[in-house]
Specification:
30% of the residues lie in helices and 29% in strands. It has 350 residues and is α+β, with helices and mostly antiparallel strands. Strand 18 (332-337) and strand 19 form a beta hairpin.
Amino acid sequence: MSRASFHQLLEKYQQGNCSPEEQRLVEQWYEMLDAEEIADDPDEFNNLEQKLWDKIKGDIQEKPPVQTLRKNRISHYLQPAFTIAAAFAAVLLISTAFYFYQDYTKPSQGVFSKVKSLLIKANSTETDLKIDLEDGSTIFLGPNSEVQYPEHFSAAVREVELTGNAFFQVSKNPSRPFLVYNKNTVTRVVGTSFTIKTNPSTNETEVTVKTGKVIVTAKEEKRAFSLKKLFQTTPEVVLVPNQKTIFQPVAEHFTTTLADNPIPVQVKDQPQKSDYKFNETPVSEVIRQLETTYGIKILIEDDALKSNTFTGNLSEQNLYNKIDFLCQSINASYQLSGTTIVIKSKNKIN
């Protein structure tokens, strides 16, 4: 198998174009290596790579019986040429994963394994429990929830582990990111406020941002390396104020939309609007002001609607009620499309 063919096989896998047999072969090789060969000690990786190379080039029949068994487990999927290609893939998977994916954001078993003093707080009450952290951050722990965190954060990163629901107000410190681990996701922030909720019946995780920006990533597999990481397919979303995402662990998929109750966002050097009283104001201008206030994209699909004007007072309404009241006045309706509000004529709404 030539190097060009080897790269072609990897590209097919990365693009999702492998046949089921090819995909099973690559993954089977990786699983075997992960279970029997891979060591966490970085000093062992060069030896491991050489061992694999020798195995590929040598006479497999002369290896111990266990090596023959490995060959037999794979050969029925594809011709020997693909076996060689997959072995090349295994070498690349291990060496590339080790050198390019060892960073402090990696969730792992026992995230506090090196921490000498670990604090555990559980909330058995029916109201939120306020917890002040040493860095100035605050956790409002929901009922029937638990949080674990070190008594003293490390110099590089601030880490907590959450079971259940909580609202976080994180102090800003760009040099020490704040990571929240729960069962299925890792939420990474610098300085912001957000809510994390876990549905105990479905294990779905919901993250809603109030201020700042967060990055939510699906928790990595327990093994040290994974094909998803190598090919950058680990699900991840970036959230800004008034956005939320729900991670579905079975499908390994994020569904991102707007918060249940969007609130006005503070924009630097821009005062917030004091009221929402309008008198014969073009609908396009009303929409522009709402977009600015809430930091949300509002799209009017039908140009004819933009020529309408609006008169009314929306000051005491939440965002969705504002939009609904506006739509009623111009014979339109709205629907959510991801993180965008789409306004259409009523006869065009599905």
